[in-house]
Write a sequence for this structure.
C-alpha cells in the first residue's frame, strides 16, 4: 500500500471516463467492491485514493478523521486573511476570510468565521489542537485548497501543495455477478495521469494486490457495447497458475468495420498475472491470431458479434481453431498491455 494516500493532484476539471473489464472469477467469493487510485506524476506514484467506505468530504488537514472537541489554542489573527478555493462539478468558488474580533482568537472562533464566510460550501470545527475545514459536498469531484493568507500558518493550514489540497472520495464500486464491464468518471482526470485499481472486501476490509499502473484512453474510441473482453487462463504442468507468461495477439488489417469506424491491424503483447490470467478488449467481428511464445500453441479466432457475449476465452474451441503451420509471428516490438 502506498504510504502517502493524498499526494498532489492539480484539479483539471476534465471529466475522464475509465472503463474496467472484470471477470467474476477474479473476485467472487473473496471481494465485493472495486476501488481506483490516481497518480498525477509517474506510474510509481504517489497515488491518491479516489474511493473509500462512503462518499466523503474534502478535508484539511489531509486525511483528518477526528471528532470535534474543545476550543483549541488562541492565536493573534484578527485583521489577517485566509484564502480558500472550493471546487466541484459545477466549477470552483474562491472564498476569502478576514478574521475580526479582539486578539487573541481561539481556533473555535476562527472556525465560526470560516463557516460564515463559506456560505453553504464549508464546515469547520476544532478537534483538540487542530482546526479542521471540510466541504459540505462529497465525492471525488469535490476539492478544497488553501491558496494563501497570512492567517493560514498560524492556524495550522499549509499553503503549498500537496498538503494544501484535498479531494473528496466516492464510495467504492459495487461488483455484480452478472456484470463484467464497469465505468468510472474521474472528474479531475487527464490522459497524462496514471491509475491503478484493486478489489476490496467490505465485510473484513481485505484487499487484493493492485493492478499494474495504466493510463486511460487518449481519445474517444469504440463504445463498450462494440467490444468483447478476450482472455486466457494458463496453468503449468502441475496445474499451478502460469504467471509472467507472454501472450501475443495479432490482427491483420483487413478493413473490418465496427459501426462507422474501421479497425486497423496491429499486435499486442500481454503478460499473465499471478493467477495466470491475461485479458484485453477487442472489437466485435475482428479476426485475431493468439499464440504463446515458446510453445506450439497458436489459434485463429473471430471475436463474437453476438451482443449478449461480454467475454470469451481466446482458446475457446467454439470461436477458435488450431493453426500450427500457417501462423506467422511478425518481428514486431510489442508494447505491454496492462490490465486489472
Amino acid at each position: 500500500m502506498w504510504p502517502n494516500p493524498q499526494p498532489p493532484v492539480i484539479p483539471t476539471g476534465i471529466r475522464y471516463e475509465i472503463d474496467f473489464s472484470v471477470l467474476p472469477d477474479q473476485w467472487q467469493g473473496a471481494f465485493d467492491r472495486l476501488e481506483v487510485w490516481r497518480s498525477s506524476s509517474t506510474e510509481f506514484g504517489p497515488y491518491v485514493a479516489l474511493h473509500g467506505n462512503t462518499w466523503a468530504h474534502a478535508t484539511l488537514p489531509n486525511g483528518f478523521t477526528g471528532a470535534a472537541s474543545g476550543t483549541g489554542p488562541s492565536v493573534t489573527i484578527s485583521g489577517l486573511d485566509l484564502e480558500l478555493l472550493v471546487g466541484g462539478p459545477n466549477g470552483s468558488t474562491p472564498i476569502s476570510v478576514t478574521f475580526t474580533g479582539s486578539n487573541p482568537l481561539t481556533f473555535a472562533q476562527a472556525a465560526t468565521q470560516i463557516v460564515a464566510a463559506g456560505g453553504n460550501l464549508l464546515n469547520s470545527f476544532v478537534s483538540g489542537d487542530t482546526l479542521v475545514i471540510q466541504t459540505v459536498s462529497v465525492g471525488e469531484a469535490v476539492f478544497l485548497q488553501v491558496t494563501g493568507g497570512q492567517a493560514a500558518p498560524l492556524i495550522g493550514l499549509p499553503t503549498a501543495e500537496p498538503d494544501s489540497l484535498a479531494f473528496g472520495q466516492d464510495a467504492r464500486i459495487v461488483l455484480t455477478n452478472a456484470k463484467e464491464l464497469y465505468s468510472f468518471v474521474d472528474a479531475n482526470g487527464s490522459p497524462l495521469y496514471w491509475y491503478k485499481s484493486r478489489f476490496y472486501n467490505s465485510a473484513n476490509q481485505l484487499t487484493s494486490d493492485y493492478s499494474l499502473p495504466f493510463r486511460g484512453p487518449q481519445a474517444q474510441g469504440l463504445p463498450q457495447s462494440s467490444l468483447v473482453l478476450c482472455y486466457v487462463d494458463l496453468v503449468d504442468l502441475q496445474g499451478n497458475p502460469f504467471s509472467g507468461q507472454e501472450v501475443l495477439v495479432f490482427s491483420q488489417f483487413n478493413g473490418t468495420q465496427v459501426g462507422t469506424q474501421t479497425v486497423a491491424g496491429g499486435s499486442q503483447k500481454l503478460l499473465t498475472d499471478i493467477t495466470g490470467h491475461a485479458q484485453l478488449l477487442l472489437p466485435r467481428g475482428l479476426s485475431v491470431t493468439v499464440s504463446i511464445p515458446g510453445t506450439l500453441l497458436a489459434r485463429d479466432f473471430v471475436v463474437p458479434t453476438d451482443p449478449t457475449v461480454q467475454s470469451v476465452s481466446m482458446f475457446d474451441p467454439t470461436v477458435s481453431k488450431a493453426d500450427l503451420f500457417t501462423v506467422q509471428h511478425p518481428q514486431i516490438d510489442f508494447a505491454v498491455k496492462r490490465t486489472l
Notes: The first strand starts at residue 16 and ends at 21. The two ends are 16 Å apart (CA to CA).
